[in-house]
Amino acid sequence: MKNIVILGHGVGVKFVIESLLFSNIGYNVVLVITHPFIEHAADLEMIEKRKYLYGDFGYNVFNVKDDYNIPVFESNDVNDLEAIDLIESYSPSYIISIGCRNIIKKTFLQRFSKKVLNIHTTPLPNYRGAASDSWMILNGEWGKKKYGCIHYINEGIDTGDIIEIEYYDVLNYSYPIDIFKARMSIFKKLVVNALIKLSDSHFIPEKQNTDLATVFPRLLTLRDGHIDFKNWSGEDIIKFIFAFGYPFAGAFCFLEDIKLCILRAEFIKNIEFHPFAYGLIVGKTASNEYKIAVKGGVCLVKTLEVNGIEVSQNKFFKLGKYLK
Question: Which long-range contacts (CB under 8 A, 24 or more apart) does 310-317 make?
């Protein structure tokens, strides 16, 4: 049996462990290294709050010890000598990064030459970097077939040669949680097929076309999720609301000094407004769903949260007031 060490967190760790347990290809996960427990707090809090959305895709990596009898080691930086020596003590055939928070550095790569892999579940080289679900929504990837891959890690960011790819569908009007589930679903097949390819001494991985590369940074909803009603089209606003929607806290705006998070909305192309009206609350439906004037029509708000709690829109929205 050949040993695998995993660096990272999340349900992808679970899926890789299970895929190797049931595949009979001769590999076994023997160690998981993750960032310190305290740094998991925000992710675990969100999973708990939206557990009805996550279902089986919400996983605490620290459960690996009880679920699979695999040790879990916390490290501030996997490049530290302590972490490197620990990994080496397990004699890994491969080390697989699954959402590792650290950039793997030269010293690490030299110690484990040609053994360090990364699972990146958005298309490379087009989606290097982070926050892939939200960026794919913002960039208009709804309704398209995309792929994830497993690739070698080198000294760049998501620049290594690709070993294997696996496709999934980005459905129309997907939220980040929907794309996340689609991406995670490819893990089991992806890692097994990659390891089978790597067992072939004649296998040659595919080099990335650097000319096609784009890099997107991690997004923070509380910082980046502010809706710009004045300057964006209605279609762009709807994409933005979905991109910062479930499982996240929601795209936000302000009515006077009250912060409002819009989790669900619909763009209706039924009327044109002068730009001076953009952001104005212009009407509501019989079911008290409010209409916001935007470029090209109205944004019909479906779900509103304040301080993380879903609220009735008529308690906060006021006709003739601007959202900013």
Answer: 310/263, 312/288, 313/284, 313/288, 313/289, 314/284, 314/288, 314/290, 316/255, 316/258, 316/260, 317/255, 317/281, 317/284, 317/290
